[in-house]
Amino acid sequence: MADIIATLQKQHDELSRSEQRIAEIVFEDKAFAVNASIIELAARADVSPPTVTRFCRRLGCNSFSEFKVRLAQSAFIGTRYLEPEIKVSSAQEVIDTVMGRAQSTLNVLHENVDPAVVEKIAERILKAKMIYAFGSGGNSSLFAHEVQNRLFRLGLRVAASEDHSMQLMTASTLSEEDMVIGLSISGRNRELARALEVAAGYGAATASVTKGESLVAQASQLSLAVDLPEGTDVLRPSSARYAFLAAIDMIAFLVAIRRKDSAIEPLRRIKRQLVTYRDEDDTQVLGD
Amino acid sequence: MADIIATLQKQHDELSRSEQRIAEIVFEDKAFAVNASIIELAARADVSPPTVTRFCRRLGCNSFSEFKVRLAQSAFIGTRYLEPEIKVSSAQEVIDTVMGRAQSTLNVLHENVDPAVVEKIAERILKAKMIYAFGSGGNSSLFAHEVQNRLFRLGLRVAASEDHSMQLMTASTLSEEDMVIGLSISGRNRELARALEVAAGYGAATASVTKGESLVAQASQLSLAVDLPEGTDVLRPSSARYAFLAAIDMIAFLVAIRRKDSAIEPLRRIKRQLVTYRDEDDTQVLGD
DNA sequence: AATCGATAAGAAAATAATTTACATTCTGAA
DNA sequence: TTCAGAATGTAAATTATTTTCTTATCGATT
User: Fold this and answer.
1) Checking CA distances to A142, which of A233, B54, B70, B143 falls within 20 to 30 Å?
2) Which residue did the predictor score with more confidence, A124 or B32?
3) CB contact, 8 Å: A31 with chain B?
4) Touching check for B270 and chain A: CB below 8 Å?
């Protein structure tokens, strides 16, 4: 069941004028919307109650109260994120803001992610003899290491690189047995796009997790689109991080499931090593 | 406004017998309670509707619908995702599972994070002349780099290390002007705990983001507790990642706000370099 | 420009949900 | 046992919501 605010944003253009007015108010003042009766909300939007009911139906709810419940379930979390410039100063406000943005970002990804692409990338990973994860810049290099971190636990051969030159050189040594996964938030990493093309030129499979339609997306055979609105406030932490982590999570999780039997043994071994070495409590997280 | 489920548990003993029966049902099946009408809920608890109204009032709500809204807002609603073993096989199920766990993990963090500690760590970071972020193992080393990635953008001096030996050697060179931030999911990283103690021994400030009460937490002066239930299924991706990322996000965000004026300039510079070099569209994410 | 069809939106009626007011039934202490 | 007070239910009143039906609006077509 999708987040109602996300649905609201997505369907905004398909709403009638009155409905958009309701949407506006809901969006602007969720605290009001969540507590108001249908009559109050209708009055404030200057429409009739039946229009509000129709508005709820259009959003996939059976009734106004179902709408309110769904709104309450997401409003709490999402409130702050969508409003561009909020005054934030106390620690509690920072916490709420960070959480709100993270949640909202994940919701946006959830709404837009294409299962077919996740499936295809996972399948291709399973076929590869060796996998290279490429990403540069503070964030995307992190993602490359995350890919490595996740896949090696499944007993796959995988290397990560954040170095453009290494990426390019590596790409030119590949063959049909190899696969390159490119990571880029912006999708404008020219060097990465080049490396992907070179790799493909030598027969390697290429995939990316990046902005849809971007340079990097176009340079790869498979591309999982992660499209997120990024604010303009320079102080704003890039909440895209959560979405990329989740995207990688999805791919890795599916790979794990698809090769379940052969994946358990490497994990067991890693775990045993860590436990033996560190202490006896084997509930600890794999590899910290 | 307190969480309604928490209120429910706290006031449990002061409720009458019928009210306790209602509480029971709400607690057992929140999904039902949140969607049911007062009549349905009353019927299921085998009480009359007015008793339900009285129950709501006792919990500090003015009406049944206010109660429902508060219930829907309760973070506990999200915890259904934490239920251990769901059979997952299709890509869509994987996506839903990954998203659900990520959201739940974030909810748990949101519930438990201590704003005072976030504030203290941020304040201490602002005082330090140099910051070292230490973490090892696939996940925690990622977090160390995340700390570095976030703080250098604010114009702070920061280095990350995932190497135990380097951490220990570095720790022994520090002074009052330095600060070490230790990252560990499990909190059982003995080498990290040692490095933190050594650093403190030489007068450096020490903080950690790790499991509460753990070895690493005890070894540091300030510790932001991130306590999450970790499943036992070895195939399960560690959703703790999201919570740690968020925890770091909170600290970095607060640091950014506290030194707002001086933080904008470094960010502006980083951005200008990237834009000039890469392309003209300056909406791209800082550092990809 | 006139007309048709489709969609949107409101009015009023019908229905359903919730609350209030009041009556009854318990419970436990004197 | 009896009585005060709390707890609960019944039924009425109120309020909220939805349905049905009508009117208005807009755009396309002739």
Assistant:
1) A233
2) A124
3) no
4) no
How distant is the Cα of A246 from the closest Cα of chain B, in angstroms?
A: 7
Q: Do B237 and A249 touch (CB under 8 A)?
A: yes
Of B42, B53, B51, which is closest to residue B16 (Cα–Cα)?
Answer: B51
**pLDDT confidence band for B180 (50 / 70 / 90):** very high
Q: Is the pLDDT of residue B155 over 70?
A: yes
Tell me which long-range contacts B90-95 makes (C-beta under 8 A, separation of at least 24): B90/A115, B91/A115, B91/A116, B91/A118, B91/A119, B91/A122, B91/A250, B91/A254, B92/A115, B94/A118, B94/A250, B94/A253, B94/A254, B94/A257, B95/A110, B95/A113, B95/A115, B95/A118, B95/A250
What pLDDT score does B192 carry?
A: 94
Closest chain A residue to B281, measured at CA: A188
Kind plus residue range of the DSSP H or E element containing B29: none
Q: What is the pLDDT, as a whole number, of residue A99?
A: 81
A1 touches chain B (CB under 8 A): no
What residues contact residue A34 under an 8 Å CB cut-off, 6+ apart? A68, A71, A72, A75, B69, B73
Copy the structure tokens of residue B169: 């050697």
Contact A158/A152 with Cβ under 8 angstroms?
yes
Residues (pLDDT < 50) of chain A are 76, 78-85, 232-237, 278-285
CA angle A58, A60, A63 (to 5 degrees): 85
Mutate to test the interface with A, among B80, B208, B239, B285 (most CBs of A within 10 A): B285
Catalogue all structural domains in chain A, each as residue range(s) with its CATH number. 4-112 (1.10.10.10), 115-270 (3.40.50.10490)
Inter-chain CB pairs, A–B, below 8 Å: 230
Query: Which of A75, A247, A212, A139 shows the shortest CA–CA distance to B69?
Result: A75
Nearest CB partner across the interface for A103, out of B106, B122, B142: B106
Query: What is the percent of chain B with per-residue pLDDT over 90, rounded to a whole number?
Result: 41
Which is it for the CA torsion B156, A97, B217, A270, positive or negative?
Answer: negative
Output the CA–CA distances (angstroms, integers) from residue A231 to A238, A240, B282, in the order listed: 8, 10, 12
| Beta strands A130-135; A178-184: pairing state | parallel
Rounded Cα–Cα distance for residues A283 and B188 (Å):
11
Tell me the Ramachandran region of residue B203: left when phi exceeds 0, alpha when psi lies from -120 to 50, beta otherwise. left
Chain A: closest CA distance from residue B23 (Å): 19
Using CA atoms, how far apart are residues B102 and B106, in angstroms rounded to an integer?
6
With an 8 Å Cβ cutoff, is B279 touching chain A? yes
Candidate from A75, A103, A119 with C-beta closest to B91: A119
> How much is the pLDDT for A205?
96
